[in-house]
Design a protein that fits this description.
Helix content: 25-40%
Order of helices and strands: HHEEEHHHHHH
Largest sheet: 3 strands, antiparallel
Distance between the termini: 18 Å
Shape: globular
Strand content: 5-15%
Structural class: alpha+beta
Radius of gyration: 20 Å
């Protein structure tokens, strides 16, 4: 249920885990709390009926045991394949959670500090714009989306590699993109601004500091130790 609990977050927040999903505005508001399963299930049925999201798999774990597991909607709406508790969803930005854990592990090992300037560990990290002092940008800024960097936009969909393709070397990939996406929108620490590019930089930092490929580090140090057998790149 470890992965399936993450899957419900992915499906609800990103609407990208199933065939037939579109970039639709949310039509239903998730309640803050529900007292019973009977209150929860009608909401989820309505949500998948309106395709926001097209499917969702819910898992509740209590005292180390699965207390509730059920799926709603279709994992493949075109083929009318119903979702199940074993449906595998794409994790997309949930990888950011694992990136954060990896950075904090490396801090615990004394290999970096989240207060370090990013270019201490990633010399190619250069920024431009009115606030062009890259020395001011720390790892903590990247973690909290407060670096002042902008986002990548829809181009990120072209960065997804297919199953079976070799995983990109994050440092090389970052170096190839840094000149395009390194313009600061505001001073570091001034405000929050969601930035996938900032997390690409963090993945490169993880490779630089650990000496391991980003994906391998996450698998060897996070998913495998947690026995997350259904979660993988």
């Amino acid at each position: 249920m470890r992965f399936r609990f993450l899957a419900v977050i992915a499906a609800l927040s990103l609407c990208l885990g199933a065939t037939g999903c579109a970039f639709l505005p949310p039509k239903l508001v998730l309640p803050d709390t529900v007292a019973t399963v009977e209150q929860l299930e009608p909401y989820l049925e309505d949500a998948v009926s309106s395709k926001t999201p097209p499917s969702v798999s819910v898992g509740v774990v209590r005292d180390g045991k699965v207390a509730y597991a059920k799926s709603f909607g279709y994992s493949d709406s075109l083929a009318t394949v119903e979702a199940s508790p074993d449906t595998v969803y794409q994790w997309w930005s949930l990888t950011k959670l694992f990136t954060v854990v990896a950075i904090l592990q490396l801090q615990e090992q004394g290999l970096l500090s989240i207060d370090d300037p990013v270019n201490k560990h990633l010399p190619t990290f250069k920024v431009r714009g009115r606030h062009d002092n890259g020395q001011e940008i720390t790892i903590k800024h990247l973690l909290s989306h407060s670096s002042g960097l902008g986002d990548i936009g829809m181009e990120i969909l072209g960065w997804v590699h297919f199953d079976g393709d070799p995983h990109p070397v994050q440092i090389e990939f970052f170096n190839g993109k840094v000149d395009k996406f390194n313009k600061l929108k505001q001073a570091p620490g001034e405000e929050g601004r969601y930035s996938n590019f900032g997390y690409l930089a963090l993945a490169a930092v993880i490779e630089s500091v650990s000496g391991a490929a980003y994906e391998k580090y996450v698998v060897d140090n996070i998913t495998v130790p947690l026995d997350m057998q259904s979660t993988h790149f």
